């Protein structure tokens, strides 16, 4: 029932060989999926470290503002966030006439923006949680060494928090990999988008979607494995003792 | 008039979204319980099949599952109907959506329930068996009431993710909130307002869920002493 030839024939288009509509992106399929994933994770991580610090701030106004951001972004579907940016912003003439419009009418850029803001919200909470988990003894030791607040953050609190955030962050990475599949709903041809195109061309549902599923599954395993390695390297001190 | 009177239509969609979410939750709980029991069974084949289910389902995006099960399922039905010389019935998108989301979150629930069941002290089940209760009765009278407390945090999380997953069901033709929003968007030319309303409704569902689940958590943790740092 499953036509293996169709799967083999269309394999290159999954890897990004086909001709796409996306303008800023160089390729489609897997390359686009990984590109969206990589850039949004990178942006999200960069945003979430300062935001995580603000989230644990003693200033109620600062931590409250960050709480509101993470609450709203974690409490609504990423698809709605993407649609607000992609379809919604065009409602305002000020946006349409501004310099940003060049980017905001691009599905690729909108997806990147929505994914980044979304993962930044989740990552902020992960990092803030780990900063709060810092052992009081470490803070006291840092203070006793005469470290300033920022030096203590930079050398003691943040590095340790980031290490301890690894297991939760690996979950977030896998969730984001799967989350990028909605890019196809705003005309992009990521792995899921390519599968949908093949389906609408051939009316064969199993081959393209099974292929897409296998690609996601393979990368999920790959990421889980890489994070296991990373945890072995950076969280060795938390592992149960072996002797 | 706000959104040219499209608000009631979006609210109607919200009701359908909630229906889909609630029905999928039931499916996922049933599948999750079965999966957890399989995972703790003595038979290797059962353990292995539950392992396969929970790993494979969680490694593939929900959108891909939706396309695969909806379009693929329709084709299977067509094939079977053709073989028997019958007219193929159209899959009801509501049932397809509920089964798909339930199937996906059943995998997450499997992990939730397995962990929760393992957290109930073994002596409890042994005591039940010593009283002559059948395994099923032990489960419903002894294990189930006690595992709720351990399952709730992860269950809450799964529910919140499940609700957000329902935003995808319009791709298989359900007239949910996202579908209604799409119509309203094209007619009112106010896409931002429309999707902000949708976001607000999702946020409201999330908020109410969190409050209710916290209350439930409190209720089921009565008599449990919490350690304070």
TrEMBL record, chain A:
Subcellular location(s): the record lists:
Cell inner membrane; Cell membrane
Checking InterPro entries in the record gives: AA_ABC_transptr_permease_3TM (IPR010065), ArtM/GltK/GlnP/TcyL/YhdX-like (IPR043429), MetI-like (IPR000515), MetI-like_sf (IPR035906)
Q: Where is the ABC transmembrane type-1 domain?
A: 30-227
Give an example GO molecular function.
transmembrane transporter activity
Q: Topology relative to the membrane, per the entry?
A: Multi-pass membrane protein
Q: What parts of the sequence cross the membrane?
A: 36-54, 66-89, 101-122, 173-189, 209-227
- Its signal peptide is none
Name the SUPFAM superfamilies for this protein: MetI-like
Q: Which domain of life is it from?
A: Bacteria
- Any single GO CC term annotated in Swiss-Prot or TrEMBL for this entry: ATP-binding cassette (ABC) transporter complex
Instruction: List UniProt keywords, sorted A-Z.
Output: Cell inner membrane, Cell membrane, Membrane, Transmembrane, Transmembrane helix, Transport
For biological process, the GO terms are: amino acid transport
UniProt family annotation? Belongs to the binding-protein-dependent transport system permease family. HisMQ subfamily.
Protein name (Swiss-Prot/TrEMBL): Polar amino acid ABC transporter, inner membrane subunit
Organism (species): Pseudogulbenkiania ferrooxidans 2002
TrEMBL record, chain B:
Location in the cell: Cell inner membrane; Cell membrane
Q: Which segments cross the bilayer?
A: 20-38, 50-71, 91-109, 155-174, 194-215
The ABC transmembrane type-1 domain covers 14-213
**Location (main, coarse):** membrane
Q: Per its UniProt record, what PROSITE patterns does this chain match? A: ABC_TM1 (PS50928)
* Pfam families xrefs: BPD_transp_1
- Membrane-related topology note: Multi-pass membrane protein
The GO terms this record gives for MF are: transmembrane transporter activity
Q: Which family does it belong to?
A: Belongs to the binding-protein-dependent transport system permease family. HisMQ subfamily.
- Database matches in PANTHER family: ARGININE_ORNITHINE TRANSPORT PROTEIN AOTQ, CATIONIC AMINO ACID TRANSPORTER, MEMBRANE COMPONENT
> Sorted alphabetically, which NCBIfam families does this protein's record hold?
HEQRo_perm_3TM (TIGR01726)
State what protein this is by name.
Polar amino acid ABC transporter, inner membrane subunit
Q: Which organism is it from?
A: Pseudogulbenkiania ferrooxidans 2002
- Could you read off the lineage of the organism from its UniProt record? Bacteria, Pseudomonadati, Pseudomonadota, Betaproteobacteria, Neisseriales
């Amino acid at each position: 029932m499953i036509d293996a030839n169709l799967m083999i024939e269309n394999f290159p288009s999954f890897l990004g060989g086909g001709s796409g509509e996306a303008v800023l992106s160089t390729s489609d399929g897997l390359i686009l999926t990984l590109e969206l994933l990589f850039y949004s994770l990178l942006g999200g991580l960069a945003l979430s470290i300062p935001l995580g610090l603000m989230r644990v701030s003693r200033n109620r106004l600062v931590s409250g503002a960050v709480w509101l951001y993470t609450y709203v972004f974690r409490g609504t579907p990423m698809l709605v966030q993407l649609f607000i940016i992609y379809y919604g912003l065009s409602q305002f003439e000020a946006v349409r006439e501004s310099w940003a419009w060049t980017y905001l009418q691009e599905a690729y850029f909108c997806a990147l923006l929505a994914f980044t803001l979304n993962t930044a919200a989740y990552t902020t909470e992960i990092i803030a949680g780990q900063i709060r988990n810092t052992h009081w003894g470490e803070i006291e030791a840092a203070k006793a060494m005469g470290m300033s607040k920022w030096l203590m953050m930079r050398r003691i609190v943040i590095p340790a928090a980031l290490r301890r955030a690894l297991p939760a962050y690996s979950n977030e990475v896998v969730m984001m990999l799967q989350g990028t599949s909605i890019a196809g709903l705003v005309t992009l041809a990521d792995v899921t988008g390519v599968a949908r195109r093949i389906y609408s061309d051939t009316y064969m549902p199993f081959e393209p979607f099974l292929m897409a599923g296998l690609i996601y599954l393979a990368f999920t395993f790959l990421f889980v494995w890489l994070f296991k390695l990373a945890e072995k390297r950076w969280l060795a001190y938390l592992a149960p003792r072996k002797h | 008039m706000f959104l040219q009177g499209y608000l009631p239509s979006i609210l109607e969609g919200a009701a359908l979204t909630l229906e889909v979410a609630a029905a999928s939750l039931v499916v996922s709980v049933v599948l999750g319980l079965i999966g957890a029991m399989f995972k703790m069974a003595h038979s290797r084949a059962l353990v292995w099949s539950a392992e396969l289910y929970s790993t494979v389902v969680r490694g593939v995006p929900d959108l891909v599952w939706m396309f695969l099960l909806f379009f693929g399922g329709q084709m299977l039905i067509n094939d079977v109907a053709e073989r028997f010389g019958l007219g193929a019935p159209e899959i009801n998108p509501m049932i397809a959506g509920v089964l798909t989301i339930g199937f996906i979150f059943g995998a997450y629930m499997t992990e939730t329930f397995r962990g929760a069941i393992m957290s109930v002290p073994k002596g409890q089940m042994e005591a039940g068996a010593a009283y002559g209760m059948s395994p099923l009765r032990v489960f419903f009278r002894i294990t189930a009431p006690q595992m709720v407390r351990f399952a709730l945090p992860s269950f809450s999380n799964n529910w919140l993710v499940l609700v957000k997953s329902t935003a995808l069901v319009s791709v298989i033709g359900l007239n949910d909130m996202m579908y209604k929003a799409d119509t309203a968007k094209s007619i009112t030319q106010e896409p931002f307002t429309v999707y902000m309303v949708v976001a607000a409704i999702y946020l409201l569902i999330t908020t109410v869920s969190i409050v209710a689940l916290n209350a439930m958590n409190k209720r089921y943790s009565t008599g449990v002493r919490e350690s304070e740092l």
